Structures are given as C-alpha cells and as structure tokens.
Amino acid sequence: MKNIVRLFFLILFVYCTFLFIESDFFIVKNIQIEGNYNLVKDDIVKKLDNIKGDSLFYINASRLEGIIEDDIRVESAKISRKFPDTIKIKIEERKPIAIVYSNGNYFYVDEGLNLFALYKEIKDTGVPIINIPKEDEIEEFKIMLKTLRDTQFYNTISEIYKGDKMYILTLLDGTNVYIDKNVSLKKYNIAYKIYVDESVNKDIEYIDLRFKDIIVK
Questions:
Q1: pTM assigned to the model
Q2: CB atoms < 10 A from the CB of 46, how many?
Q3: How far is the C-alpha of 188 from the C-alpha of 67, rounded, in Å?
Q4: Residue 147: helix, strand or coil by DSSP?
Q5: Half-sphere exposure of 20 (CA within 13 A, CB side)
Q6: Are β-strands 206-208 and 176-179 bridged in parallel, bridged antiparallel, or unpaired?
Q7: Contact residues for 183 (Cβ-Cβ < 8 A; gap 6+)
Q8: Which end of the chain is less enclosed by CB atoms within 10 A, N or C?
C-alpha cells in the first residue's frame, strides 16, 4: 500500500512539474542582446526570433551559441536564461585592427587577420590599411603586428606594407617608419617620443628601428 501511495505522489509530482514547465508563464517573450554587437544585432534577432513561444526550459543554449558563432563577425556568444520569459545573449564581435584590400573590396580584419566585415559596415575606426604579405610570411607579420598594436604609433599609421627585408609603416603625416618583427615595445615607445619631439621642428623623412640605434632622417 505504501508503495502505491509513493507511486501516486511521484506521478502527481511529475505531472505538476510538467504543467509547471509547460506553463505560458515560462514561454520566451523577450530576447536581450548585450555586449559588442553593432554589426550583428539585427541578424541575430532574425535568426533567433523563431524561439519566441518556446518554453524557457527547452532552450538549447549550446546550439544557439553555435548558430550565432557561425557568423564570421562574431568572436563569441554566451546564452543565459532570465526567468520567467527572457533569453539573454552576450555577444563579442571581432574587433577591427586594420583594413585590407581583397577581391575588389576593402575588408576589416581582426587580430588573426581574418576578414570579417566590409569597409562600409564599420565607420570611423581609424585603423590602418595593411597589405598582407605572402602566405609563408603571415605568422611573422602577426608577431610584428601584435607588438605594434600596443604602441602609440598604431593610431598614427595610415598604411603598413612589406618592403625589402623590412616592414614599412607610413604615418598620417607621410613619415615612414622601418621595422622588423624584432622591434620591442620599449623601442617603439622611445621612437615615438623622438618622433613627436623631432616633428615639431622639422619634417621627418623616415625613422629606422631595425638597428641598435634609432636612426632619424
């Protein structure tokens, strides 16, 4: 008899739980998007609009994150539930660090040099145009770029391209800076101070950072 009573209450509990989960109180009505999402907000809303009306308990967060991260513009996505009726999506888009020319269009690239957005999709970023070197030189270029991005020089660069045994940074005022992948952050900072001081009194043709001493002409 006791077992029958236990079974009855177990069935009752399961039934009540089912009714609770299926209740309209937990139907998805809102989708909140947070983080860095300027490029993809409208597209994400369109992709996920069909989950409205589903139970919050049945949402497969991992699957939805995968759908969002399939967009090349998205670095990462995180889905969470906000009871009783809201899905929260935290988006991190890829951050543009430069512009490259490819197949007749200008594209933004991220730190890994991945093309992810057309030039017209992002406005006023102030990033340089880069000419990506040959395939076998890409890794060296990334090493150089990683250090360079932490310098004060970066915001003053108009273009970056590969020269003969060096990289050339053309600054906004036309000054060329000759570098290689071995230039340290400390040396960049010293050179930038020299550049600022020297450019007050004269036009600088180039600054060469490839050797032990910094050469300014």
A1: 0.74
A2: 9
A3: 41
A4: helix
A5: 6
A6: parallel
A7: 144, 147, 148, 209, 210
A8: N
Can you tell me the distance from the alpha carbon of 78 to that of 91, in angstroms, rounded to the nearest whole number?
7
Q: What is the DSSP letter of 168?
A: E
| DSSP code at position 128 | P
Q: Using CB atoms within 10 Å of the CB of residue 43, give its burial: 0 to 12 exposed, 13 to 18 middle, 19+ buried.
A: middle
Q: Distance of CA 31 to CAs 27, 51, 92, 181, 185, Å?
A: 12, 9, 16, 45, 43
d(CA 33, CA 45): 9
pLDDT digits over 57-93, tens only? 788 899 999 999 999 999 999 999 888 889 999 999 9
The tokens describing 192, both together, are 């930038």
Instruction: Let me know: does 173 contact 136? Beta carbons within 8 Å.
Output: no
- Cβ(132)–Cβ(115) below 8 Å: no
